[in-house]
Amino acid sequence: MTVIRPTFVVGQHVTWTSQAQGSTVTKLGEIHSIVPAGNTVHPVKYPSLAKGAGSPRDHESYVVRTYDNPAKQTGLKYYWPLVSKLIPVTAAKA
Fold first, then answer.
1. d(CA 76, CA 54)
2. Domain count, the chain
3. Is 20 inside any structural domain?
4. Is the pTM of this model over 0.85?
5. What gap in Å lies between CA 80 and CA 52, rounded to an integer?
6. Which domain holds residue 51?
7. Digit-coded pLDDT (tens) for 37-75
8. What are the helix (H) ranges across 2-91?
């Protein structure tokens, strides 16, 4: 069975929901870079992700940039969410 995954472009806004320590959080971010199939995140460019990134993924994936305060663009964070969790955000929502 072939799995069809959505594709995104750098700069595209996305949202996804993550769960950790008993809480669920919906995040909003922007595709920052594309990780080719068979690779992990770049360890120098994204050192915080490279430590716990895990194994290479067998499909194209994406590093997403978020801010704690989007209006001021402060509190920069990067995530490497599962592609299946990413949902494109329309211009009206972004």
1. 22
2. 1
3. yes
4. no
5. 10
6. 13-88
7. 999 888 888 888 877 667 888 999 999 999 888 778 788
8. 47-50
29 domain-assigned: yes
- CA torsion sign, 79 to 28 to 24 to 83? negative
Residue 4 in any domain: the answer is no
Using the CB atoms, write b or e for 23-44: b if 16+ within 10 Å.
eeeeeebbbbbebeeeebbeee
CA angle, residues 89, 34, 61, in degrees to nearest 5:
75
- The one-letter amino acid code at 76 reads L
Q: What is the pLDDT of residue 91?
A: 58
Name the token pair of 49. Answer: 């992700």
CA distance 4 to 13: 20
Q: Is the pLDDT of residue 93 over 60?
A: no
**Pair 46, 34: CB distance under 8 Å:** no
